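Dear Dr. K.,

Following up on our conversation at the group meeting, I've run the structure prediction for Carboxypeptidase from Artemisia annua. I'm pasting the input sequence below exactly as I used it, so you can double-check it against your construct before we proceed with anything downstream. Let me know if the numbering doesn't match what you have in your notebook.
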Amino acid sequence: MEKYWSWLLEHQMGQKVGVMLKLDQVRFIYIVFHAYTLCQQKIVICLFVFDGVLMFMNTEAHMFWWYYKSPYRTKDPNNPWPIILWLQGGPGASGVGTGNFEEVGPLDSFLKPRNSTWLTKADLLFVDNPVGTGYSFVEDEELLVKTDEEAATDLTTLLIEIFNRNETLQKSPLYIVAESYGGKYAVTLGLSALKAIQDKKLKLILGGIALGDSWISPEDFVVSWAPLLKYVSRIDDNGLAEANSLVDKIKQQIAAGKWKAATDTWGDLEGVISTNTNSVDFYNFLLDSGMDPVSMIATELVRQTPRKRYSRYLDSLRTSPGENGDLGLLMNGAIRKKLGIIPDNVEWGGQSGLVFTYLEGDFMKPRINEVDELLNKGVNVTIYNGQLDVICATKGTEAWVEKLKWEGLKTFLSIDRIPLYCGDGKITKGFTKSYRNLHFYWILEAGHFVPVDQPCIALDMVGSITRSSISTR
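The predicted structure tokens came back this morning:
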């Protein structure tokens, strides 16, 4: 792994160029690499690291981000090249690590080229969000965000810093694509960015929001868990009754605004589900948790967490959703060494548990109203869900969509779905339907990590979402 990464840097990337700009208390580092993949197509990789305080107004919070410029980028003014901002979930999971090396970036966690990279459809921007996630860190725990809105404010300031400096990027529509808890960041960021654009503080074209298996309505998801697992024979009537008792408790706590208590009960519910299903994988109900690297060490993590509420999703910080290498070893080893800018006392993912803890009061809050507001403002909203997911089950997603107050909802629900195919075969890979600015994709044979489980249809889907001008098939 180390040898391959060294080869990539030294023989495929040419000279590293570093420019440091100082803005008051801000340190801005810009690094450009020129690379060739094994297929001999040139990739220009722009790695930006923002290590400073502009968005936080103090010197003790640091945010890390990574930007790839696509080799397929075109300069057609009638069809501007898109940029995707990928937001990971958790809260506390790293977009720079998981989204980049495990799901949609140009290299996998063995540092081998990924044929299904989304870089063929758009430029890619990964952020370790919120601070405390991945390589991002705080020197004072009180600077960790406590609400989704605080995370959105930080991200908006980051976008101002990136886009206002670059006229080329200002011409490219930005699509915010989120996974899991990242969906809550995405919708709050979407509204925050729109306001900044209207106030002429942010020079940006917002192309749309895409919510992949997103934790938009926690109540609807926990309600869906036990009935889904009963239907697919993973839980019996006794387990169903025990789970539904806790679901009723969660619903009461949410109705009373007892958000932290609801988060605690959510953790208890996960435990009951695990016990009664012989440890079903919350990210793919066809698997046991030990079969999928995502949840391979979930049981041990839960034992180590005093209140037993640590999200299994954070396992992706240390293990892989696909058949890839050890992500924690990669990020704290080869990548960290070659970057050469991560402070010695910072461990990738070292503060992720704290990120979750500080957001536990927001964890169970819904963001349906924010989706409604985006739709009413004319923003394109795409929802996609994996058929086999449990934690953000399709049934739960459909339930919160039906609660939207958007005027086009009735028509959207009434129209027929269109089947989706990928490649040369005519095997159904999914379904989709669209009405005006709301779009929904049902992805078959995929769990929580759609780009990992169904890379072909996921790539086609993101090309459609971003209206990318390039066909790679």
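Two things stood out to me. The two ends are 29 Å apart (CA to CA). The first strand starts at residue 17 and ends at 23.

Best regards,
J.T.
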